[in-house]
Amino acid sequence: MGKVVMYSSVSVDGFIADDTDQPGPLFDWLLNGDVPLDDSGAVKVSQTSYDYTRPYWDQIGVTIAGRHVFDLTDGWDGKPPGGIDHVVVVTHRPPPEGWDPAAPFHFVDGVEAAVAKARELAGDRLVEVAAGDVGGQALAAGLVDEVRMDVAPVVLGSGKRYFGSVDAQHLLEGPDVVQGNRVLHLRYQVRR
């Protein structure tokens, strides 16, 4: 089975969005290079960030996100972001009215069920868990193997925390560090 990776861009002070759910300059690093990161050509990064990020993206089979993110993005119009095969949505509510049941989205109740479903769908590919409340719950439940963060040079001051409401200590190994253009890519293995 593939490993479970918690991931997001994050501010230096540990936030993935401001109080109004806006990322602000957290994703500027995705627009400040000259190497296209995807087929759209809209996302361009430095060569260093490309060499770090593209192989990771290519390994992702399934993304897990919370219902809040799903609703904020309008369910990505039924198409998983970044060419990912499936999205597992952690929610206590049914899919939205009129949702296409053929869309590769799976609505499950609880983070444990989400990780189990994602692992089944991903096979030997990576399962990516969006940072925030769902990612924090997965980490607290011992379901995360690796923590990745792209640290942007900004202090947001308040907002949505990278680790959600995690309130217990979790030890990590590393970090592995790659410095891109206006971003610091960090990778930590979760200590078992």
What does this molecule look like?
With 192 residues, this protein is an alpha/beta fold. It has one domain: Dihydrofolate Reductase, subunit A (3-Layer(aba) Sandwich). The chain is 20% helix and 32% strand. It contains four helices and twelve strands; from the N terminus they run ββββαβαββαβαββββ. The protein has helices at residues 47-59, 67-72, 111-122, 133-140; strands at residues 4-11, 15-17, 35-36, 44-45, 60-66, 86-90, 105-108, 126-130, 146-152, 160-161, 172-180, 183-190. The strands form three sheets. An eight-stranded mixed β-sheet has the order 7-6-5-8-1-9-12-11, sandwiched between helices. The longest helix has 13 residues, at 47-59. 36% of the residues are buried. The model has no long low-confidence stretch (mean pLDDT 96). One of its GO terms (biological process) is riboflavin biosynthetic process. Residues 112-170 form the Bacterial bifunctional deaminase-reductase C-terminal domain. This is Deaminase. InterPro entries: DHFR-like_dom_sf (IPR024072), RibDG_C (IPR002734). GO terms for molecular function: 5-amino-6-(5-phosphoribosylamino)uracil reductase activity.
Question: What fraction, in percent, of the residue positions are helical?
Answer: 10-25%
CATH superfamily: Dihydrofolate Reductase, subunit A
SS content category: alpha/beta
From the N-terminal CA to the C-terminal CA, the straight-line distance is: 17 Å
Please summarize the sheet with the most strands.
8 strands, mixed
Share of residues in strands: 25-35%
Please report the first level of CATH classification, the CATH class. Alpha Beta
What form results from the Cα inertia axes?
globular
The number of strands is 12
* Average residue pLDDT: 96
Total number of helical segments? 4
Tally the structural domains: 1
CATH architecture: 3-Layer(aba) Sandwich
Radius of gyration: 16 Å
Helix/strand order:
EEEEHEHEEHEHEEEE
CATH topology: Dihydrofolate Reductase, subunit A
Uncertain spans, ≥5 residues at pLDDT below 50?
none
